[in-house]
Amino acid sequence: MKKPIYTLDKLRFEIDNCLPQVSAAKNNKIELKAISNGNYPGKKIGKKLLQGISSMGFMHVVDEQDWGIEPHRNEGIEICFQENGFNTLTVDGNKYNTPAKTLTITRPWQLHQVGDPNLSPGRLHWIILDVGVRQPNQAWFWPDWCILTDADKNELELLLRGNEHPAWQANNEILQIFKRLQSVIESEPLEQFASHIMLYLNQLLLALLELLRTQNIVTEEHLTTKARTVEIFLEELNSDHEIAAFEWTLALMANHCGMGRSAFSNYCQQLTNSSPVIYLNRCRLQHAAKLLVNKNCTSITELAFDLGFSNSQYFTRCFKKHFGVPPHQWQKQQLTPNKAL
Questions:
Q1: Measured CA angle at 305 (ends 302, 308), to 5 deg
Q2: E-strand spans in 37-190?
Q3: Which of 4, 72, 128, 189 has its CB surrounded by the most CB atoms within 10 Å?
């Protein structure tokens, strides 16, 4: 069972359940050590002890693997460090090479995976830091153990929110910090090393800030706006038929994006030139057209209900109006040789 990061009634936006990693560790394919404060595997830590640390650990991969880390989102900012070896990171459909000493950063709203498709040999460290956000426009709340000045925290937040590039070449200072964190993660009892962990995490955040300062990053204001939040949600409706199939109402869509119905409708109109309901319906019909071909669907009624339509007759009328032919005829045409969707 996958663990949800966002939940809204029956709707789930999935996070990484780490099952492939856990399975590989049990079968002695990799070495895996982690501490966890939430839905992730690893030695459990008290939330008051290391507030905001959802997961932290490392994987040591010796041989080529027959599995990869599936596309997922995280309950916080994920900071990964490829100590040695080589991997490929895919973020929102774009691939990035991550050779040794590559630091990667993904935000909670960024869909990403490691492996192309399988994981490659190397040592990979990670930290998932929950700063209380799930959407780009939300303000961040740093944990109490973070001793950076307000000015530094604000600058780091701006650099990470106003820029969504995921991969950076790290330096030896960051390498040494991750090695120190690895040593305490392997120590027993963990509680005696909580101060060490907090100290190293502050060193890492400061080193990260200094690294980003050297990159001449031009932050983009639109990446932190409500419009960006709506844009990401609309992209999910367009790309994931299960999300589009949810019983959305205007109020639920607006609430999911953290705004009122009028504001949400205005942003949707700006981005798609249509109302939210019309855009949702269009996404469902596009998904239906693909499913009719890719899954060789035979039951129009079942497909209609699976995609959130109230009945098959209404679905058929909408489909014919959009594509010019009813669903079964569309399916037959597309499955004919030399025809493509």
A1: 150
A2: 43-44, 53-61, 69-72, 77-91, 94-99, 102-106, 112-114, 122-129, 167-169
A3: 128
Cα 107 to Cα 116: distance, rounded to the nearest angstrom: 21
- List, for residues 78-114, the tens digit of each pLDDT value: 999 999 999 999 999 999 999 999 999 999 999 999 9
Report how far residue 175's alpha carbon sits from residue 173's, in angstroms, rounded to the nearest whole number: 5
Q: Read off φ and ψ for residue 15, nearest 5 degrees.
A: -110, 175
Q: Give the integer Cα–Cα distance in Å for 284 and 287.
A: 5
pLDDT number for residue 167: 97
Distance between CA atoms of residues 198 and 147, nearest Å: 9
The model's pTM is: 0.86
Is the omega angle on the peptide bond into residue 189 within 30 degrees of 0, that is, cis? yes
- Name the pairing type of β-strands 4-8 and 11-14: antiparallel
Q: Which domains does the chain have, with CATH numbers?
A: 4-222 (2.60.120.280), 225-335 (1.10.10.60)
Residue bearing the bigger pLDDT, 277 or 16:
277
Tokens of 211: 């690294």
Where does residue 70 rank: exposed (0-12), middle (13-18), buried (19+ CB within 10 A)? Answer: middle
Q: What is the DSSP string of 220-242?
A: -GGGGSHHHHHHHHHHHHHH-HH
Paired tokens of 92: 């929102």
Residues with Cβ within 8 Å of residue 50, at least 6 apart in sequence: 35, 37, 143, 145, 194, 197, 198
Pairing of strands 43-44, 30-36: parallel
Please confirm whether the linkage preceding 117 is cis (ω < 30° from 0): yes
